[in-house]
Amino acid sequence: MKRKIITTADGSKTIQIEDWNEQYHSKHGAIQEAYHVFIEHGLRLFKNTNISILEMGFGTGLNALITLLEIEKLNLKVNYVGVEAFPVSSAEVIELDYCSQLNADEYQQSFQKMHNSEWEGQNSISDRFRLKKQMKDFKSINDIDLFNLIYFDAFGARVQPELWTEEIFLRMYQALKHEGVLVTYAAKGSVRRALQAVGFNVERLPGPPGKREMLRATKM
Fold first, then answer.
1. Which residues pair with 22 in a beta bridge?
2. Apex CA 81: angle with CA 76 and CA 84, to 5°?
């Protein structure tokens, strides 16, 4: 599929899949959306502990990068698993230029290490951040009671409805520990009902720029 780099409303960049008219991040602000959904309403629930995070849709690595930037403030150590079926290219990573846009040039080497690290290996990105990337389909997730937090950042249900089903969310529910949390930018009623159907307690929260709401789901 044809892809191109575009600039979003907050000045940060993302990848657009032209055939789908779909972006990896919000065109209303890639960095703003990532911080609002995954950090403000996900990561910051945890402090002074060790946690495991599963990211569904590793993509550009933006969510992993901002997690790395934030964990020292929260006194966290993170084991991070990023699932991606179609990795981005090195050229795209360079053009996205996220470290500069985040005023975090000192993390450039760590960000490159994230993208250059081998798939399926345990990679130490820093003393606080270990990364394992998995190149596979969401339907291949079969972890049980392993994660504290899931960043669910799949392409939207408009273009990939098969990723927003009860079947997929049951796998997410099973992968989470008790009181584990899933956060997503999505807010469609069909997504909320699918999450509830597999056992999640679902909250509607204020959405990032360009969206009225987002969802947070907790395994009780």
1. 17
2. 140
Helical residues (DSSP H) of 75-117, grouped into ranges: 90-96, 98-101, 108-116
Residue 2 has a pLDDT of 86
What digits encode the pLDDT tens for the residues 111-135? 999 999 999 999 999 999 999 999 9
Spatial contact of 74 and 44, defined as CB atoms under 8 Å apart: yes
Can you tell me which residue has the tokens 């250059």? Answer: 116
Q: Which of 115, 151, 155, 149 is closest to 135 using CA atoms?
A: 115
pLDDT of 139-156, one tens digit each? 999 999 999 999 999 999
> Counting Cβ atoms within 10 Å, is residue 94 exposed (0-12), middle (13-18) or buried (19+)?
exposed
pLDDT for 57 equals 95
Q: Which tokens hold the place of 123?
A: 């990679």
Return the domain boundaries, the chain.
29-219
Contact 88, 25 (CB under 8 A): no
- Smallest Cα–Cα separation from 28: which of 19, 40, 36? 36
**Do 80 and 55 form a contact (C-beta atoms < 8 A)?**
yes
Q: Is 134 helix (H, G, I), strand (E, B) or coil?
A: strand
Average pLDDT of the residues in 72-80 = 97
Q: Which two tokens stand for residue 100?
A: 């500069």
pTM score of the predicted model: 0.96
Please state which of the four CATH numbers 3.40.50.720, 3.40.50.150, 1.20.120.160, 1.10.540.10 is assigned to the domain occupying 29-219.
Answer: 3.40.50.150
